[in-house]
Amino acid sequence: MRKHIHHTDSREVVISISKLYKSFDENHVLRGIDLELHKGENLVVLGRSGTGKSVLIKIIVGLLKPDSGTVKVFDREVDKLDKKELMELRLKIGFLFQHSALYDSMTIRENLEFPLVRNKRNISRKEIDESIEDVLEAVGLSGTINQLPSELSGGQQKRIGLARTLIMKPQIIFYDEPTAGLDPLTSSEINDLINEVQEKYKTSSIIITHDLTCAKHTGDRIFMMMNGKFVRQGNFEDVFDTKDETIRAFFDYNFIQ
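RESULT FIELD:
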């Protein structure tokens, strides 16, 4: 199942990265990265683990500063923002990390209301309840509201992690290895869900993965990272339609049908 390519209505750019370099001593992690994320698009950054994909995300949200190059989010240069502006920017960005990290001692309801209560001081009980119902329905888990995370499967916990991300209505979502550690069936459900979220919430997303099925299924465009650079970009077929041995090897290593 390959993704039906989304023709996003606008070519509006939400993240723009140009000539980005980042090193840690002798370790050149990012070596001239150029990337544009369009509004409403799922963009996959594909590469083996430890290829600077997480450094890229940290720079986009202002946790690390670039050595050189520009990074703009919503047309503002991230490393020029002050603390308050950074906080405001981060409220528009959602994350789904590899480990969904729900609070074990809290029910699903409490887990979901936590970010709302923490970030939206004067929100009413009614608004909270409606938001919780909305996101639980979106991830197909309305029945779990009074359960504890330990009562849910790994795939369900991942879904609740996504619901908790969605409850803040982010404009951009970063998915970090969303299918890692999940069995093929659950992975496939998560891939479908990423596409459903894109449809329903019109989010713009960067999906970091080394799972080719995930890339193929969710990516409107795929950027393949090797040695700190993007070596190929385009849709799935474009990226892998090549005689380049290193890229073939990556494909064969991952795609054991």
